[in-house]
Amino acid sequence: MSKRLTKEQRNTIKKCIKLGWSNASIASDVGTTPEAVNYYREKKLGKPRGQYNKTGKPAAKVTVAPAHIKNQTMRAIGKLQGPRILTFDIETLPLESYTWGTFDQNVGLNQIKTDWAALSIAAKWLGDDEVWYEDTRGKATIRDDKDMIAKLCALLDEADIVVGQNVKKFDLRKIRARAMMHGLPPFREPLVQDTMLMARSVGSFTSNKLEYLSKNLTDAPKSAHAKFPGFELWLGVMQGNQEAWEEMREYNIQDVIATEKLYLALRPWVRQHPNVAHYYDDNQRRCPRCGSVNLHNNGTTFRGVSEYHAYTCADCGGHSRSRFTLNTRDKRKALVTTI
């Protein structure tokens, strides 16, 4: 180690290790290196790291505790600054039903053999390197998704903002449905940033699909799951093919990484974004999109009959304005408006 850990750092590391945090997450929060945390973990505490590997694949049994408790702990000790932003994606299993054809079928309820269910879930906190992933591979049946849904509901309950591709129309509605079917309590509804709707509001892209947007706007394109193309991937999973399961895991995790990067690319351009400055316990002037204090004066801007200070964020590049008018009392009296 290049620097001795202070008593406060050691105590914080102990608490975080008990919660299952990774070396990288602990290091970023206590202000040291992952190597120093790993040394303290193994040499002083005798607890080798075994929670995650670098790809997000669980190396041991994964629980929701690290992500769920992390924000509460950091808030309690006064270190959490900014909103808790969660990007997530779910994959689902199809209905199994009886039909007499392959085109334009109207399936009645009594023709459904097996209902749909969640197959896998990946989720990531903004600012954290790790992706939480879980699937139903080890369950009695692959449609037993209750525990997995409960864990995601706990994450959603802790999130201030959730991010996802088509998350409003698909993922959140599916999660609510499965949670109710399992008798789970409602989670606290977070604010939602749907990257598909964000892209649609920003500009006229050729396509608003994740495949197109992530390829052209980020360095993390959506996975093509080429080994099991199209429905072959879901068919392989339902048949118990372990290679298909691994490809599903990689596909699900990559979707979350691609979606988060797409969100960050779109965020400076979006006008209807939650004001993240609310989530900081200070009175500093901050960018309403990313929370940065690196705002530069950019003259003034006019809205309606009022003039405001204009700012540009040096970190995300987004533009913003002050909330209070610069108009003098005499100016306000003199201005008239159209009818």
TrEMBL record:
The keyword Repeat does not apply. InterPro entries: RNaseH-like_sf (IPR012337), RNaseH_sf (IPR036397). Keywords: Exonuclease, Hydrolase, Nuclease. One of its GO terms (molecular function) is nucleic acid binding. This is Exonuclease.
